[in-house]
Amino acid sequence: xxxxxxxxxGEEDVRFLQDFIEFHFQKKVGRSLFIEIGGKSETIHLxxxxxxxxxxxxxxxxxxxxxxxxxxxxxLTKVNAKEKELSLKFDKVFLFPDDKSQxxxxxxxxxxxxxxxxxxxxxxxxxxxxxxxxxxxNPRPIDEKEKLWIYxxxxxxxxxxxATKRIYLDxxxxxxxxxxxxxxxxxxxxxxx
Length: 193
Hints:
Elements: E1 4-8, H1 11-25, E2 34-36, H2 48-56, E3 60-66, H3 72-85, E4 92-96, H4 105-110, H5 120-133, H6 144-153, H7 182-192
Parallel strand pairs: 1-2, 1-3, 3-4
């Protein structure tokens, strides 16, 4: 496994991919395998040296990013432009959620909750609407990341629901065999299978 570098946007991606790889391929992946960009394609330059070092040491650079620009194609175009501009090498690229649609890690996760649990998101949406209607001063926004935090934290013994510490191996909360995850599993099988 040390022959590969997984280049991701941030800690949340690392945490999810660690559990996903362990679940499907029975391999524990340490943080040393990951290069965190700390953002989207616009911030790839911040990790330029790490990526170039990975390439010069003979590692395969596998980029796993969100396809959350205008669409999948425009995200891929941006990534390819950055690769060329910064003289980087991305051997393989996968864009969340399924390597063909617009989306991100959060949309992927929301689609891979355990069957029946998706109904909880209607309650979370109602809470968000109610909170907005109250016109509170400086309320914390309830975005997709926050909705997943509320979802995960809604279960007893779910552990820490912060995305960087969340455990995805509980089948009562997450369905890592969800059909939405098949493209990711097939993609990662090349490196971990």
